[in-house]
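ok so for the tutorial part 2 we go from a plain amino acid sequence to predicted structure tokens. step 1 is just haveing the sequence, like this:
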Amino acid sequence: MSDSMSEPNRKLITVMLVLVGISQGLLNGVAGPTMVDLRMKLNTSSADIARSVSAQGFGIFAGALAGGLVIDAMGTWKFLLVTLAEIIATVTLILMSFVTSLSLLWVTFFSVGTAAGLTSVGKRLAYRHK
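step 2 — the prediction. this is what the tokens look like for a chain of 130 residues:
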């Protein structure tokens, strides 16, 4: 085999990427339905919540930029970075329900976005090898 990655490793990576894709879909899908609950919990307007959700876009940009700079240089460790980014996004999403201010809500959406940006770049580079 001319590849530097064995067939079992490729299958494992494929399973991991499918699970990461499912996780990303769930992370992206949760924000919309929870906006009403967050608005009521924080006793604020929908516009304020929407501004907080926009932080996710800034986070995606930051995560993709950081991922583009470091993931390719990480070799096989890039899989660990993708996994770590997904764990951070999941924990942050869980903590979002305990947020007590719009500033903290902005930080949580930014964190989820940053993890999503890292994951997105990492998934695209997962099969690249030297």
